[in-house]
From TrEMBL:
Pfam families membership: ETF, ETF_alpha
Coiled coil: none
Protein name: Electron transfer flavoprotein subunit alpha/FixB family protein
The Electron transfer flavoprotein alpha/beta-subunit N-terminal domain, residue ranges: 96-266
Region (Disordered): 1-46
Length: 406
């Protein structure tokens, strides 16, 4: 067996440009089709530019492929991200109720976990079930938390516990859900027991863990456990079941009017909201705190802004040490540890002790001239400006909106 002798001179000349010593870098043509074609970085960069400008298109979803661009491509060509999918249960085999408190007009952490428990039981049965969220009217994010259907409780705030229990009992009797889940906290715990007793149903309260086949409850002072198949009525405490984190559900309004004739308890003659004085509340009881730091020099303007915003005034340790605010207004590890929904920090840099005092606050707004302050890093919304200039502007804006609302 023989083979043709290689001619290295001819091969070198074939890889050269014009017979010169400068090599040809067209590897795809010179070496053969088995090699990978050469990348064109300029064309790839043009594909990522917006309207052929230096500004790059940022693909945060990491799902868009590079857009090939060439001399004949239009500069406005771009890809669009796919719309998020929505989970739809058209014909459920059964229903699972999730009774939500939704205090202050929004879902709490425990409410989301109640929906997660209902989603767990709805997906476990044969044929697939649907989760029905029973909540006051106007609550959003029910679909993102796992609700396929929604039953709105209109006038829920005007009802007593017996009237509310009677309304939910009518829903249970009309729709016959397989499971009804409540929160083992506050009014939800009392409501679950009222409805279960009136229907003569077994109820399993304050579960330790819940799965599709088994519900576990502690007893005898947490020394033993009682377990069995999940009953119809269940109450769960916080952090017993994970919240739903899958594809958003439909959250469609369920047909049926269960609010007619039950808008209020006949034992209640009149309901009138009484506004409290935020400045008289303690920092541990309030939901909105407006706090002053070393960057605030006009304390009277600060107090006027706190009153206009209906917030409870607070302060950092530096302000309280200077005698500008009482010691009861001090926020931090050495003062009062907050659990407020919103915390507005004016001119506070963010010492470690102060940040420990606001660790449980859900929303933090910072006003500071230092972009790299620790309070600005902690805040969900930051205004990089002088607090002395922001306070009168913010108060004027609040006063103007109040005049328009009258």
């Amino acid at each position: 067996m023989t083979r043709t002798r290689r001619d290295p001179r001819s091969e070198r000349e074939a890889r050269s440009v014009g017979g010169r010593h400068r090599p040809r870098f067209d590897l795809g043509l010179a070496v053969g089709a088995s090699r990978r074609p050469r990348r064109d970085p300029r064309a790839e960069r043009r594909g990522f530019e917006v309207f052929a400008a230096p500004r790059l298109r940022l693909d945060r979803t990491q799902t868009l492929a590079p857009i090939p661009a060439g001399p004949g491509d239009a500069p406005s060509r771009r890809s669009e991200a796919a719309a998020p999918a929505v989970r739809v249960v058209a014909a459920p085999a059964y229903l699972v109720f999730a009774v939500l408190e939704a205090a202050k007009g929004r879902l709490s952490r425990l409410d989301r976990q109640v929906l997660g428990a209902a989603r767990l039981l709805a997906d476990a049965g044969e044929g697939g079930g649907a989760v029905v969220g029973i909540a006051p009217a106007g609550i959003v994010d029910l679909g993102a938390c796992g609700a396929d259907r929604v039953l709105a409780m209109t006038g829920d705030g005007e009802m007593s516990a017996p009237a509310r229990a009677a309304r939910i009992r009518a829903m249970v009797e009309a729709l016959a859900p397989r499971h009804v889940i409540f929160a083992e906290d506050g009014e939800g715990a009392d409501l679950a027991r009222r409805i279960a007793v009136s229907l003569r149903e077994t109820i399993l309260t304050d579960l330790v863990s819940l799965s599709a086949r088994q519900a576990v409850r502690a007893r005898d002072g947490n020394r033993t456990e009682m377990f069995g198949a999940p009953p119809r009525f269940i109450t769960i405490g916080e952090d017993r079941v994970a919240a739903y984190g899958g594809v958003p559900c439909e959250a469609r309004a369920l047909d049926g009017d269960f609010n007619a004739g039950r808008s209020a308890d006949p034992a209640i003659l009149s309901i009138e909201p009484v506004a409290g004085d935020p400045s008289a509340l303690s920092l541990s009881e309030t939901d909105f705190v407006v706090s002053a730091g070393n960057g605030v020099t006009d304390i009277e303007a600060f107090k006027a802004l706190a009153a206009a915003l209906s917030g409870t005034p607070g302060a950092s340790r530096v302000v309280c040490d200077a005698g500008l605010m009482p010691r009861s207004a001090q926020v931090g590890a050495s003062g009062t540890v907050l659990a407020a929904d919103c915390y507005l920090a004016l001119g506070i840099a963010g010492a470690p002790q102060h940040l420990q005092g606001i660790a449980a606050c859900e929303h933090v707004i910072a006003v500071n001239t230092d972009l790299h302050a620790k309070m600005v890093e902690r805040a969900g919304l930051a205004i990089v400006a002088d607090a002395q200039a922001v306070m009168p502007a913010l108060k004027a804006l609040v006063d103007e909106r109040k005049r328009r609302a009258r």
